[in-house]
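Note to self: keep these together.
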Amino acid sequence: MTLPPFASLAPGARLSDRVADAIEAELRGARIAAGDRLPTEAALAAQFGVSRTVVREAVSRLKSVGLVESRQGSGVYAKAAGFSPLNFDARHAGSRAAVVQIVEVRRALESEVAALAAERRTDADLTAIRQCIGALDAAVAAGGDGVEEDVQFHRVIAQAARNPFLMGTLDYLGQFLHGATRVTRANEARRLDFAHAVSQEHARIVDAIAAGDVTAARQAAADHMRNAIRRIEQAGPEFWTQEGDVLARSLTERAPGG
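Structure:
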């Protein structure tokens, strides 16, 4: 099949993003129909005047947002470019502003999750939450970053809230929340006062849930996220040079369909 010529590359951004944007414009404009096979990697590289590595990265991004799919031994094919709810763009996710925005989403969700957990938790839930705190402390004491343990701590609280829709939302957002947690914990590990504050904030959340204090649990979780934002805003450019790249890569790797 002969496909229509692609638009020229728009200025700005990195090459792979510009190539992906150009192809996406063709897909969303229906100039490439669902089921059409895209030109080969070599053909796209020649058409755009870029390396095959750039094309490969661009196609990977299009896969991550569900616009194309690979078929074994056949090539890359266009998928229907329908509406994709919460279709986040990982290109900008490594910035300070993006991490703050992700934590703002967490604040909105997890404050209510903590409130519901305080209202609905069982003794077994409380035991599991405290075990997560112990695992987090142990991981940090052993020299780990505590990311997985931190994520699990908040997940167990969400399970205690007993709302499958909240759990589903958090699971969907997990790719972004996990990456942001990695960055916030890397930032907090740089300073003892940050690490101590996080530990205290976690303890306040657990205490409020244990006491069945809905208002205090909601406030403690909101304060934890608000303070995480404040700590992130204190990170310098050298931190973002390293951690921003790590986050952007992790989101690209975790994106649905990637």
